[in-house]
Amino acid sequence: MTDFQPRPGQRVAGYDVTARRDTDYYAVFADIPAADREVWDRAKAYIDEVGTRMLDAWDTAAYPLDLAMRAGELDLFNDGIVHPDLTRFSPLAAGLVNMEISRGDGSLGTVLAVQGGLALRTLALFGSDEQQARWLVPIARGEVPASFALTEPDHGSDSVSLETVARRDATTGEWVLDGAKKWIGNGASGGITFVWARVEAEDEFHGAVRCFLVEQDTPGYTGTVITGKASLRGIHQAHIVLDGVRVAADAVLPGAQSFKDASTVLYSTRSGVAWSALGHATACYESALAYSQQRVQFGKPLAKFQMVQERLAQMLEELTAMQLYCRWMADLEERGQLRPTQASLAKYHNTRAARRIAAVARDMLGGNGILLENGVMQHMADIEAIHTYEGTESVQALLIGRDITGMSAFA
Q: Is residue 92 within 8 Å of 36, Cβ to Cβ?
């Protein structure tokens, strides 16, 4: 654009709308502790470092694993997990990292959710001392890609009904896994997978859902990258087939003994999804605001039109509510008072609000809104994925409804 020469009908070469503005109308984050701000600044620096390549990766549906794992080198995967071998992030710091990385790139936000929120948390909560000694720090540092395999092709929202099975070989004592998983981030990246399976055994665990640590180069494990995605195109998610996969007797995570333990991990990551939605929505609002100040129509900037100012005010209203949800949720979690359904409400509100903000922002940018270089269309597409994962809108509504009425409406 440096060589651009204005021509009749084109006075500008493009618009600078993706710069960070740190929108915080109610000063929700003005008083955060210095330690949390340092972590947040590290996340900003990370996004500034990798952003250009990630934009190209989203466009071509490539997964630059080196950029994804760079977050581990910068110690950003810890997601508020409490463990003596991990750096302690407060819930607020963990949320700000989630927000900032998603504001920059939704695919990297999902990497953070998978590598840290799901896989690292599963190992930290339920792994044996030996499993943690071997894998915990390498996962946290991004030296080993890790995935969390719960969802199946036939079981998404009803994942409690999963059909992947684990049987004991009476002769060798090994576990034998058979089944299929789908939408597994990092599931074909050459690392390890935490596979949730239903146990068939002649003991007290028969029928229980347990978790198994599987190295992806184990014979019988096939991870195929899912193609044709219109969302989160900068991370590879896999369709996994487990065909007689044999793992050692000690591959089971001893602390994971029921589906309730899988739910514990999911509950913990729902707050992260609320923060991620806030990051996406912030990017969309800031792009719309910048565009309205730069784009001239009918002889004046769009920002001088009443309808545009009203739309900006409506977006800011929703964005500020999202920030307040997240900040109060982090404060509750810091005090040990956050209930799972409160995290569900934050996810429910924030992903819905993010969709609305993205739609308005896309419309405000007109035809320029569909260009990836302006950010909004990419965020709009990526929001569709986070709106669904870690529990759909309908599932969150039923969880909240059961909590406030005392009656279950699940079929």
A: yes
Q: Looking at 49, 384, 390, 393, which residue is catalytic? A: 390
| pLDDT tens readout for residues 287-323 | 999 999 999 999 999 999 999 999 999 999 999 999 9
**What pLDDT digit, counting tens, does each position of 53-97 carry?**
999 999 999 999 999 999 999 999 999 999 999 999 999 999 999
Q: How many CB atoms lie within 10 A of CB 204?
A: 9
Are 251 and 242 a contacting pair, CB within 8 Å?
no
Q: Are 397 and 409 in contact (CB under 8 A)?
A: no
Q: How far, in Å, CA of 313 to CA of 82, rounded?
A: 39
Query: Can you tell me which residue has the tokens 């994962």?
Result: 389
pTM over 0.90: yes
Residue among 250, 123, 253, 242 nearest 174 (CA): 250
Distances (CA, A) of 304 to 35, 44, 69, 292, 361: 40, 31, 44, 8, 16
* H or E element in which residue 215 lies: strand 209-215
How is residue 317 written in tokens? 């209203």
Provide the angle, in degrees to the nearest 10, between the axes of the packed helices 306-334 and 91-104: 150
3-state helix, strand, coil in the chain (%, to 5): 55, 15, 35
Distance, CA of 394 to CA of 402 (rounded, Å)? 12
Closest CA to 330 of 391, 277, 272: 272
Q: Which residues pair with 185 in a beta bridge?
A: 237
Which residue in 382, 60, 373, 376 sits closest to 227, CA to CA?
60
* Annotated catalytic residue 390: yes
Angle among Cα 372, 377, 381 to the nearest 5 degrees reads 120
Alpha carbons within 13 A on the beta-carbon side of 199: 21
The residue type at 51:
G
Element housing 67 (H / E):
helix 65-73
Coil, strand or helix: which one is 404?
A: helix
DSSP bridge partners of 10: 7
Q: What is the per-residue pLDDT across 230-250, written as a single tens digit (0 to 9) for each?
A: 999 999 999 999 999 999 999
- Nearest one of 305, 302, 279 to 358, comparing CA atoms: 279
Residues 159, 388: Cα–Cα separation, whole Å:
14
Q: What is the DSSP letter of 162?
A: -
Distance, first Cα to last Cα, the chain: 57
